[in-house]
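Troubleshooting: if your tokenizer reports a length mismatch, compare your output against this known-good record of 376 residues.
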Amino acid sequence: MSSLPTSSLPTPRRSLLLGVTGWTTVAVVTAVVAVLVPVLNLLVPAGSPLHLSDYAVALIGKIMCYAICALAMDLIWGYTGILSLGHGVFFALGGYAMGMYLMRQIGRDGNYQSDLPDFMVFLDWKTLPWHWAVSDSFVAQWLLVLLVPGVLAFVFGFFAFRSRIKGVYFSIITQAMTFAAMLLFFRNETGFGGNNGFTDFKRILGIPLAQPSTRMALFVLTGLTLIGFYLMARYIVNSKFGRVLQAIRDAESRVMFTGYNPLAYKLAIWTLSAVMCGVAGALYVPQVGIINPSEMSPAASIEIAIWTAVGGRASLIGPIVGAFFVNGAKSWFTQVFPEFWLYFLGALFIAVTLFLPQGLAGLAGQLLRKKKEERA
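Known-good structure output:
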């Protein structure tokens, strides 16, 4: 994956954040997420062909969380040239931080009718461990959603970038990081539910999660967060900061010779991308209803890179499209041809690497240019 040529990646021109067409598209997408989908799901009768099922809403909400991760990956891989195979750990840490709060919201409605989470009662724990001290506070846990992935990424990135580790070596150590975290969270004594993780959530902010309006509120919040992160990412890559990132991607040594310190730029975008994944994980957990160490597996992190590559690096919209395309195909294949899904995923990535180095976004751009040339 790290061998894909960077010279073919597009460098955006310095321009306004979005043109008229772009802002119109954002407005339409926002209206679909915040108005159309709630109407089709909550107000249109279930028997109507226009009704959007709860399953479809949950699936789209989950994929939007994945799309945030793909967008975060694009910032560091597509625009900075840093391939991470460990971003799944940041996603999972954000999910666990939110999961801790949701577990405390269960209260005495658990199987053991205790103030402690069920898995702690099962393990004969008498009190909450120290790292659960603020788990009953929604605000405090949201701060942890941002801080825990951010601090881990900052510390890891500082030492890695200061040592000038890059390329395939950096990819390998990020994969080792997520694998080590997965093994740690599998242990029961860490207080994170072991291999079962957290599940059986009941409420958020005292409101039942099973309530249709709650599910829809989480869906809309996820969609608006994705749109907000896209606009933020677009602002970044079109700014001076973003142009320096692209220069680091293409020729880091030249950037150093011109007086810039690549460490600060790489560390900043690396930490930001980790925080984005943490937010995605926090939005994912209440919608899916479970978080366990499998979200930290190396395979989960590799999938994030695949979504980005399939959609198209250094395009911002491409990774979002890639996340929807790959996970939509996964949902369909695992139902119709479950035994062939991994073969399809491997073949898809090989085909994109060999024939579409700029992904689906690059292919769409080529087709549009051809149409313009034909009209001219």
